[in-house]
Amino acid sequence: MKYLCFGYYDKGKFDGMTESERNAMFDTCFEYDDHLRASGHWAGGEALQGPESALTLYWKNGKAATTDGPYAETKEQLGGILVLEARDMNHAVQLIGQHPALTYGNIFEIRPAADMNEVMKASEQRRRQVVAP
Amino acid sequence: MPPPVPEQLSRTIETLYRSESGRVLATLVRLLGDLDLAEESMHEAFAAALESWPQTGIPDKPRPWLISTARFKAIDAMRRRARFDGAQRDLVAHMESRDHSAPLDDEEIEDDRLRLIFTCCHPALPPEGQVALTLREICGLTTEEIARAFLVTPATLAQRIVRAKAKIRETPIPYEVPTPQELPERLDAVLQVIYLVFNEGYSAAAGAEVTRAELTGEAIRLGRLLTELQPEPEVPKPEIMGLLALMLLQESRRAARTSPAGELILLENQDRSLWNREQIAEGVALVEKALQSRRFGSYTLQAAIAAVHAEAESVAATDWRQIVALYNQLVRIQPSPVVQLNRAVAIAMQEGPEAGLTHIDAVLEHGELANYYLAHSARADMYRRLGRTAEARSSYEKALALTQQEPERQFLEERIRQLK
Fold first, then answer.
1. How is residue B234 annotated by DSSP?
2. B12: number of Cβ within 10 Å
């Protein structure tokens, strides 16, 4: 089963780190990511550019409007997403619980991927009925 | 990217996980002395199986393959940690020096499982943690499956397991069968967990059908495992046999309990030819042995009652006098209102609905069962048999208002329809 793990970090704290501190963090984190890949638990992942690079869209007055910056202005910002292949929720907890990023004060939120197959099938059926003469 | 695993093989590995993971894990816990490490390395061993078996084929003996692969994965994990934590270095050396090449015999593996079940059911853990841990670590169910069976979210259940494991680590709770002095009390806790697992699977109260059938099977398997405990004079072995008998006798009626449409069928209306004779024979033999010991308790008495039912050809041919006598004993050691209600129903079968009604009303007067649908349903039944239709209807309606379960509701609605 797939679990999406959202990694949050404190940007202020990150910006305050020296280069060698940052490198040490990257090295231990990437090493653990490599271990996840080698053991078949890594199903994908991306790091994100800083929150200042974000553009947020929403619906306003009948059209899409934009603001710059992340949707939620919080101290901890989303820094990356890791897709984990694990047997169950506790297995995911166990794998992420050992991620060195945690020791640097980062936070992970684990969410099971939803199985949308049934919903998609039902939706396809509805759309087909609409098209049918 | 490795080539995709053929579906057949991935199904085989899943089946293997179901049947073997509990045993593999228990042995790894003994070898590694650490539940988390054992679990992680076991998962990696199964992942390695998915990767290498498509080429090599399934080994003749998958279990030793999984155990030895997991052991190597564990040593790798410890090496990885040793780079940050010097204390791990000695542990790695220790692990590598130990000879694990000796083949494991089945008896040793069953002993490993027994040790682990006592850890999972340790009284220092909260009861819901004990149940969750037992189902996951001993029976190999996933967090999500257990959560479905107990109608809680996976996140809630995952936390119960995380906390229970932390408690084991921090206390620390040892991985061992308790001493003879502690055993009676510790065994009570294990029996309670097993019966809870069974009831969760047996009652129509919760969860998806498949998971529930599995739960009863797991509980019976665990009960069997406990009967393998060495017979010590202090061990209340009769109650282990009693519980196993009780579960087998209840499970023997599974096929007769519901109609193909999922409607609940009462004992009196069940097609007794559908009862599983093999389970009944085993259950009855166990009850007899437990009763002979004269040191039995409530599980044995409940099993004895179930055995009387199991051996009767029909409701009319049932030895109700015997059942009432067993309930009289049971009420003495377990004076719960539900036991008293069941006794009242048995009295009704022996002496008639008038007497039954008197006893049911006496139980209801205490108030604990005021919102228990079965109490009102039983009362309605007495009125029905006495021909007091209006009172029967109002009691069935009261019962109907107190249960949310579909099979039970259908049953009660049918009873109300039949009154007209």
1. T
2. 16
Residues 82-141 of B with CB under 8 A from A: 84, 136
* Interface residue of A84, A88, A102 to substitute, partner B, most B CBs within 10 Å: A88
Whole-angstrom distance, CA of residue A3 vs CA of residue A84: 5
Secondary structure of B49-62 in the HEC alphabet?
HHHHHHHHCCCCCH
Measured between CB atoms, which of A1, A39, A88 is closest to B44?
A39
Residue B102 pLDDT exceeds 60: no
Closest CB to B39 among A35, A39, A94: A94
Give B215's Cβ-side CA count (13 Å radius): 30
- E-strand ranges in B105-245 read none
Q: Which residue of B has its CA nearest to A32?
A: B80
Q: How far is CA B19 from CA B13, B16, B118, B193, in A?
A: 10, 5, 20, 20
Interface check B44 vs A, CB under 8 A: yes
User: What count of residues does chain B have?
Assistant: 420
Q: Sign (positive/negative) of CA torsion B228, B249, B350, B312?
A: negative
Cβ atoms of B71 and B41 closer than 8 Å: yes
Q: What is the pLDDT of residues B131-161, one digit of tens each?
A: 999 989 988 889 998 887 777 899 999 999 9
Inter-chain CB proximity B158 and A89 less than 8 Å: yes
Structure tokens at B31: 């070898």
Q: What is the CATH number of domain A2-131?
A: 3.30.70.1060
DSSP class of residue A71?
S
d(CA A50, nearest CA chain B) in Å: 29
Residue A59 CA: distances (Å) to CA of A64, B163, B376:
5, 43, 55
Q: Which residues of A57-93 are buried (b: 16+ CB within 10 A; e: fewer)?
A: eeeeeeeeeeeeebeeeeebbbbbebebbbbbbbbbb
Complex ipTM value: 0.84
Hey, is A9 helix, strand or coil? strand
pTM across the whole model: 0.79
Please tell me whether residue B208 adopts helix, strand or coil conformation. coil
Domain ranges of chain B: 7-99
pLDDT tens for each residue of B307-348: 999 999 998 899 999 999 999 999 999 998 999 999 999 999
**So what's the pLDDT on residue A113?**
95
The candidate with the shortest Cα–Cα distance to B310, out of B344, B286, B333, B292, is B286
Nearest residue in B to A86, CA atom = B43
* Residue matched to tokens 């495992």: B225
Is the distance from CB of B190 to CB of B118 less than 8 angstroms?
yes
| Substitution target from B43, B145, B160 for chain A, most A beta carbons within 10 A | B43
